[in-house]
Specification:
- It is a single chain.
- The chain is α/β, with parallel strands linked by helices and 228 residues long.
- Helices cover 38% and strands 16% of the residues.
- It contains 9 helices and 8 strands.
- The chain has helices at residues 10-21, 34-44, 53-58, 72-79, 109-116, 134-139, 157-170, 183-199, 217-220; strands at 2-6, 25-29, 48-50, 62-65, 86-89, 121-125, 149-154, 173-176.
- An 8-stranded mixed β-sheet has the order 3-2-1-4-5-6-7-8, sandwiched between helices.
- Strand 1, helix 1 and strand 2 (25-29) form a beta-alpha-beta unit.
- The model has no long low-confidence stretch (mean pLDDT 95).
- Bound molecules: NADP nicotinamide-adenine-dinucleotide phosphate (NAP).
- The site of NADP nicotinamide-adenine-dinucleotide phosphate has 24 residues, from helix 1.
Length: 228
Amino acid sequence: MRVGILGSGLMGGKLGTVFARAGHEVVFSYSRSQPKLKRLARDAGKNSRAGTPREAAQDADAVFMAVHWSRVNDVLDLAGDLSGKVILTCSLPMNDENTELVVAHTSSGAEELAKRVPHAAVVSAFGTVPSEVLFGVFEARRRKAGRPSLVYCGDDSRGKESAARLIRDVGFEPVDAGPLRIARYIEPFTLLIGQLAYEGDGGPELAYRFERFAEPASRQSARPRGRS
Ligand SMILES: NC(=O)c1ccc[n+]([C@@H]2O[C@H](COP(=O)([O-])OP(=O)(O)OC[C@H]3O[C@@H](n4cnc5c(N)ncnc54)[C@H](OP(=O)(O)O)[C@@H]3O)[C@@H](O)[C@H]2O)c1
């Protein structure tokens, strides 16, 4: 896939690097430092280059939005027309102090982004893990069992297929959480991950994993499906 990175900081820089190492064509864009974009592209290898947001978006099969919430409008303006594009977003709608969500409960950052770009296929993905874990997950991707989960949601099947493919290529097991409005649950969940990663004792190299367990047969027949 051709992936345009809009915001080449902790998330965009690292995920762009991993996408390129997994064989995708990557354009890094949107940094205040052009040398930084060039260095990222050089370090990520032959599949990547530095460009403007417009260049990153132009021929992309998917663009990855990884900027602070306060920069979303700016980067969208620079990227130009994103109609028909798949937009994966990890951008949380945080206030300027990064202390709380400014959109929640009745909407989400991903839904607000979709309103800004109504003819694009917005998928919420990659926001639920700290950047510090990404290279470790990629290194461990060939492990036979126990891949960490990564939730994503969206309304467009093509966008979701692209998201699932990239999630798998990074080394996670994609978990389809449903339509885009489920980002209302995903985004607050990310604050919990942040709390555990940055305020806990174990360090920020944290991922999560959902597992299912069969209920014992005696309990299964005693209750209607879907209730606990
Ligand atoms: N970091 C995480 O672990 C994490 C995890 C989950 C979700 N998120 C979400 O992901 C999004 C990105 O987070 P991040 O930690 O990757 O942010 P970051 O490291 O600050 O990266 C943001 C990128 O935007 C660029 N930028 C900022 N202001 C700019 C401006 N005025 N002009 C041009 N470029 C500008 C930065 O440029 P420079 O290169 O010049 O700094 C940087 O490349 C956020 O919405 C955050 O909530 C982050």
